[in-house]
Structures are given as C-alpha cells and as structure tokens.
Amino acid sequence: MIQSLEMQKYISSRRASICTCSQESSRERLKCQPEDVRDTLGNNNSPIKGGIVALGKFDALHIGHRELAIQASKAGSPFLLSFVGMAEVLGWEPRPPIVANCDRKRVLSSWASQCGNIAPQEFQMEFSSVRSLTPREFVEKLVKEFGISGVVAGENYRFGYRASGDASELVRLCDEYGIDAYIINPVMDKNQDSENVEYKSAKERGQVSSTRVRYALDKGDMSYVSKLLGRQHRLIVKLQNPESQYLRGKQTVSVPKSCLLNLPPREGRYDNCYFLVDEADPLPCGVSIDSDIIRAEFDDEVPPDGDFSTFGIEFGTTQPVRNA
C-alpha cells in the first residue's frame, strides 16, 4: 500500500549533491549495437508486471534518474518508463539525444551495483496513446493493463492530460488503486555556475536535470557534465559509408558531425579522451570539434584496420577546453 505521507513519503529524503565519487568508471570497450533501442510497451505486452516503475523522461540518464532507479530497486524489480513520440505530437523541434539509443543499456548496466545487482530495464509508451488520459486514467492503465506493483517519481513529476496531475495526486491515486507510491526529493546540483539555464519552473532550479546537462555540454565543461551524469560523456558515431566518411591520417581519424548519434559538446579541443571501437582496448586521444568535422588525434598510433561503421569517443574531465 501507499507509504505514510507524514513518515515515509520520501524514501530518499536527503538532498544529495553531485560529487566525483559517484562517477562510475566507463573506460570500457564499445558495447553499442545499433539494434539496442528501448522496448515499447504494447496493449498485450506486460514485461513490467509486478515491477516498481520509475516515471520520467530519462533523456540524459543522469544521477537524478539513477536515484529513481536505486529507490525502485529497494522496493522491487526496477523499471524505467518514459514516452516515445512526444516531440512529434507536441510539435517540438527535433534535437539529438544526450545518450545514443544504442548506448542506453550499457549505462543502465553500470547502475546495477547500486540497484541490488540488477540492471534496470527501460520501456516506453507511445505518447499518442496516453496524451489525452486524465491522471486517474493513466494510473488505471498502469495498474490494469501492465500490472505494476508501484511507482517511483520525483517531487516535481507531472502527468495526465496537460500535465494536470502532480506528485500528491499520484500518491492519492496509487493508494486508491492499491499500489505503492514513492516520491523522492530531487538530487541537487551545488554548482553555482548555471544561473543562465532556462527552466520550465522555479522548482527545477538547483536540481540535476537533462536541461542542465545540455547546458554544460553547450559550454564544453566536460568535468561538470561528468558530475551530472555520474560517468564520462560518450559520443557514438555511426557511418553509413565508412569508406568515404572515415578519413584516416597518419595520427588522426576524422568523420562528419552528421554521423553522430547523440549530442556532442561545443566546438573546441578536448584532451584526455578515449577512442572505442569493436572489442579493442580504448585508445587515448585528443578530440577536436568544429562546425562540420569531429577529429580524434593520437600521439602514437591510429586504431588498427577493422570495422569502423560504429565507434565511440569518450570525453575526459581533467583538461579545460581549448579552441580547435
């Protein structure tokens, strides 16, 4: 049943701050497969039955999202549930994701050690199928169609038609439908150099968010990005025509920015990066980004011949950005 609002509404009452100690080491081999995308829930498909579902958008998979997954894992089998097709339905301008779709399972797997040795699974619902639902109808759908045991959400979570439902209503409706509801406080960002970030509401100011991650990437502050994500930012490159798009020099590898599957940092020169391809060990490199090209620069050797249709570039955190 529902947790007591007075005593246990916030199963994570601490206002956690970001810190470098929370970062997971991500200098691992490339594990990105193009077909690894989020599964979409259908009317007759309930892989989340009996699970505890964290609700949100989960664009960046940042440390605030990780906290939702951690709390879900404490209550049962953890799942992340978001929506697909929101931009198309709401008329938003398309923009690249922060995490490449094919790289999301790797990130979620890295959370397993903090989620009871269980990697959270991620599912999506078609936004068009729930857009017109009232808050009550949305909760009813989760309970009756998908058979979940409970939900976890942040205190600023909104849901239902025109975002008419808030966390308090989520708690009330879950109680009515006989499932658990856990509302947690946001993970806070102590970095004061983010006053120019545009937030949808005053309540978002100061908390870790995907908007804040995009802001840090736009500044090229990779140390800040890593703190927000709890890991180093990884770009995924997919080449449609490797022979013409993969330009290999004596100590450089260059590709068009149009081949990126997710959001790069601002133009500039970045040190202490890693080049990831196939099952090879990560190669140290520098990275230069301009308006059209991203170029990896190696001190000793370029990657050996192989399949370069998909590869990754992971950004370091210790050196400041310099102009390309």
From TrEMBL:
GO cellular component terms given for this protein: chloroplast
A GO molecular-function annotation: ATP binding
Domain FAD synthetase: 50-192
Enzyme class label: transferase
Keyword Membrane: no
Keywords annotated in UniProt: ATP-binding, FAD, Flavoprotein, FMN, Nucleotide-binding, Nucleotidyltransferase, Transferase
Involved pathway(s): Cofactor biosynthesis; FAD biosynthesis; FAD from FMN: step 1/1
EC number: 2.7.7.2
One Pfam family linked to the record: FAD_syn
Protein name, per record: FAD synthase
Originating organism: Kalanchoe fedtschenkoi
Upper classification of the organism: Eukaryota, Viridiplantae, Streptophyta, Embryophyta, Tracheophyta
